[in-house]
Amino acid sequence: MLIREQLEQREEEILAPWASFSVKSKGRLTDEPQDDLRPVFQRDRDRIVHCKSFRRLKDKTQVFITPDGDHYRTRMTHTLEVSQNARTIAKALRLNEDLTEAIALGHDLGHTPFGHAGERVLNRLCSEGFDHAKQSVRIVDFLEKDGKGLNLTKEVRDGILNHQTAGTPHTLEGKVIQFSDKIAYLHHDMDDAIRGKILTDADVPDEIAKVLGRTLDERLDTFVHDIITTSYGKPIVEMSPRIYDTFQKFRKFMFENVYTNPKAKGEESKAMGVVEQLYRYYIEHIELLPKYLLARLDLGDSRERIVCDYISSMTDRFAIARYEEIYVPKCWQ
């Protein structure tokens, strides 16, 4: 018996009946032979970890743009924290950890430089719109590996596409990511806001602190424990009504005091200007885009779409360098 088959058999013995089983996967966009060592979802996780888009997350903004400090989160560290929270929940609920981890590691591959600020600019400028979840799926389907894509399973692609609040994941593992994403960013963005002297734990309103906890660790522990105890032994993934209601109040508090705080977002207008100028430049100089993107024109993609592909793939540092190269005059030598 192959090692993969042994691992698939172990899933049958360990996982809950409502978990996603590797042998029951709905398959890939293009059929391919099975691996002898790894079940399909483990294979997807490995493909994501080794792709270029994943490595670029280390230099993409989470909340604070180009922060002066080594300990502020980036899109990469956010992704890893989502993965860790999600695996803890999935393991306790006897769901498929490989599928959960693959979705977690791939959910933000399509994020723009400068975080949601860059996303808003591309969505405004592109007549077809821009959404980072859809872009993440586009990356794994068509853009990675110089246009070949990663050919991931439908379950992983579904979880990536539906990780935002408005999404409807079709697996419980995808639902775990939907919660874990928000838990992670509320936890670490509050930590970064404290580090940046924007907030303190004492600023959290009493009505929230009494329910969720008064410290970072207490709040994270509350969220994870509540999802597990509420969902354990059931074909659901959800929070209890009291915790979920307070969770939403905490999100509102964070949006009002961090995500729209002028002190935290002081450089955001400049970053948005960089993205807009790059977009307008490459629309007029489409021939400068990489060949694998230009090939998408022959497959029916618009100029706007492939310019969004190129700009959204940039790291903060690369976007700034391109902007300076195009618009900032150099000394004559």
Write a brief structural summary.
61% of the residues lie in helices and 0% in strands. It has helices at residues 3-14, 40-49, 52-56, 75-92, 97-106, 115-125, 132-147, 154-161, 172-195, 206-212, 216-231, 241-259, 268-284, 291-298, 303-313, 316-327.
**What is the molecular shape?**
flat
Radius of gyration: 21 Å
Number of helices: 16
Mean residue pLDDT: 95
Number of β-strand runs: 0
- Secondary-structure element series: HHHHHHHHHHHHHHHH
- The poorly predicted ranges are none
Helical amount: 55-70%
Largest sheet entry? none
The amount of beta strand, in percent, is under 5%
How far apart are the termini? Answer: 69 Å
Pairing-aware structural class of the strands and helices? Answer: mainly alpha
Describe this protein with a few key phrases.
333 residues; mainly alpha; 0% strand
Describe the fold and architecture.
- With 333 residues, the chain is mainly alpha-helical.
- 61% of the residues lie in helices and 0% in strands.
- The protein is built from 16 helices and no strands.
- The protein has helices spanning 3-14, 40-49, 52-56, 75-92, 97-106, 115-125, 132-147, 154-161, 172-195, 206-212, 216-231, 241-259, 268-284, 291-298, 303-313, 316-327.
- The longest helix is centred in the middle third of the chain and has 24 residues, at 172-195.
- The termini are far apart.
- 43% of the residues are buried.
- The mean pLDDT is 95.
